[in-house]
Design brief:
- It is a single chain.
- By secondary structure, the chain is α/β, with parallel strands linked by helices.
- About 45% of the residues are buried.
- Strands 2, 3, 4, 7, 8, 9 and 10 form a seven-stranded mixed β-sheet that branches.
- About 30% of the residues lie in helices and about 15% in strands.
- It binds zinc ion.
- The site of zinc ion (ZN) has 9 residues, from strand 2.
């Protein structure tokens, strides 16, 4: 098993990060609405409660969908409480025949973006966790990984997630033909649109691997941007490319893996420790909402 050094220099860990972070890299690992982040309900607890006051327990007041499991008390206690994100100021994207390649939103606003890939793992606590965290997330879903349980992710959409495209079969796109890439990108967007009622506008290529054709096809398929990441998460740890802190605008990668709860809690803590707030990625990309 490859051991990764936490906070190792990006230059030394580029390949390892790609292996750990890139979706489905290991055969043992099966293999991201509303116009804004879901806000507190009128009359709910104030957002500036002191840290020693236990947060309200959303899972206690939200009925769980079938098959969902509530968080334990200790898990719930680890969910940071965030204030509302600022009103989004969308970044300016270059015009052209290719979709832009983005790993950090160009913004000085104190926000970061949680993205979750694939979908093989349908963690029964995912709904409760998203509900308790009360933050927007982007799900880059692979069609073949989720077709057996489309409803699982409908529940996550109800909890604040937005579904985006991540191909049908999760094959490497880099170096492949325009036609093949079009089938994977347009095809996945069409299918996800049918299932979830909103055709994706953002795309992440499997393994974070792309070429110029990928960006051209993504543009032609209606994708407004294609995403890499600045931080990746695995087995409850966050791995950084640059500074050992989440920076404003960073796109953070995680997956639907067995360690989903710990991974998500680690990402939330990293964002909270950085003084940032999770924001909705689509609100920062013109035409993506
Ligand atoms: Zn993937």
């Amino acid at each position: 098993m490859v051991q990764l050094r936490r906070n190792a220099p990006w230059s030394a860990t580029l390949v390892l990060l790609a292996l750990v972070a890139g979706c489905g890299a290991s055969p043992t690992v099966r293999p991201e609405t509303a116009a804004a982040r879901p806000g507190p309900a009128p009359g709910s607890a104030p957002l500036d409660v002191p840290p020693d006051v236990p947060p309200p327990s959303p899972s206690a007041s939200v009925s769980l969908p079938a098959g969902s499991v509530a968080l334990t008390r200790s898990e719930l206690a680890r969910v940071p409480q965030f204030g509302p994100p600022p009103v989004a100021v969308p970044m300016t994207l270059p015009r052209g025949a290719s979709a832009p390649w983005i790993s950090r939103i160009a913004t000085s606003q104190k926000v970061a973006f949680i993205t979750i890939d694939d979908g093989w793992e349908k963690n029964p606590k995912a709904f409760a966790l998203l509900t308790a965290a009360h933050v927007p997330v982007t799900l880059f879903l692979q069609v073949d990984a989720i077709r057996s349980d489309v409803d699982h992710f409908k529940a996550l959409v109800a909890a604040g997630a937005t579904v985006e495209a991540h191909t049908i079969t999760h094959q490497q796109l880099k170096g492949r033909s325009y036609g093949l890439q079009k089938r994977e990108i347009c095809g996945s967007a069409d299918q996800l649109g049918q299932w979830y009622g909103r055709r994706p506008t953002l795309f992440r290529p499997p393994f974070g691997a792309k070429d110029a054709t990928t960006l051209r096809v993504a543009h032609d398929c209606g994708m407004k941007a294609v995403f890499f990441w600045k931080e990746a998460t695995n087995k409850g740890k966050v791995y950084y490319q640059e500074k050992h802190v989440v920076q404003p605008g960073d796109v953070i990668l995680m997956h639907f893996r067995p360690a989903f709860v710990n991974d998500f809690l680690a990402v939330l803590k990293a964002i909270h420790d950085a003084g940032l707030t999770p924001a909705r990625l689509q609100d920062y990309i013109p035409g993506a909402a």
